Amino acid sequence: MTDLVLIDEAVGETRACLFDDQGEPVELAIERASEAKTRIPESAQVLGRVRQVDAGLNAAFVELPLGEPGFLPFGKKGRPAEVHEGAEIPVQITREALSGKGPNLMLLPMGCELEEPRSLVERMYLPKGIQINLADREGREKIDAAIDQASAKLAMIAGGGNICIEPTRALVAIDVDTGQTTLSPGKFNYRAAQTAFRQLRLRSLGGIVVIDFAPMRVKNERAALAAALQSLARNDPARIDLLPMSRFGTLELLRRRNTRSPSEILLGSNGKKTIETSALEALRGLENEAIAKRGASLQLQAGAALHDWLAADDINWVSSMQDRIGPRFSLERNEHFSRQQWEVKPK
Hints:
Among the domains are: 45-107, CATH 2.40.50.140; 267-346, Hypothetical Protein Ychn, Chain: A (3-Layer(aba) Sandwich).
């Protein structure tokens, strides 16, 4: 097998997933139609207006056409002459807005022609010569499975054991559990490190990360793991800074990211799927059923909250779905369903 990107261009949402040559998911990207008027994507170039210059931070805060003000650092050269309060300046988004943080910006040459933002796939870290396919129903299921993996608390380690990944406000904590593994501590920790680094990229997690490895009493094993960690860090397209492993067997690293994690997009503050996430799943289900049963009239039954979100049609999904499968579907409220439950049935 070769590395592969699957793209699911569904109604209301585009999802893309990079799979390695073993079929394992490596990186996820999600873009929603509902955010087109509220967020500016990473790589976009826009005109902003300087709201405040902060000498202490050696940076400026810039009002943007959409969303929160951006943060423009000046760097070692200090404030450019053209950047002053009230000035209109061209900037590029280098990191999209994250939870509680506005986007990071880069100043562009004054008077330059602004370029169109890169597509969702172009913003991913992809190897050269990658195969890119549009996802069919089976491909959608693979992307669904990758998202489930990226949202799970536990990730299994080949040969036994698992890691538990817990993002907090301050850092990402990863606990390594040997379980019933028969591997040596050094080999097990190496596999745990491989799993942890892959999951950090798949989940687009960043900031301070602390990994608590299984105890190793052999000095050579600790040295071999330290070397392996450096190699794993270099293979991540995001910049990673590692500290030496502590005598307690913990590793502290800083991983930089420029996009939100899938969980930030799909889940609410309670850790459960948002109504929009369930609604877009229902629309994919409707389209899948229409493709499987060509010509059949279908009914999308939905619980109260889900029905109300879909009935509002803020993303113009009815017209988009009609363009894809024709006007052979209807939306019905089912009072017996839970708030976000749905089902597609033939009429």
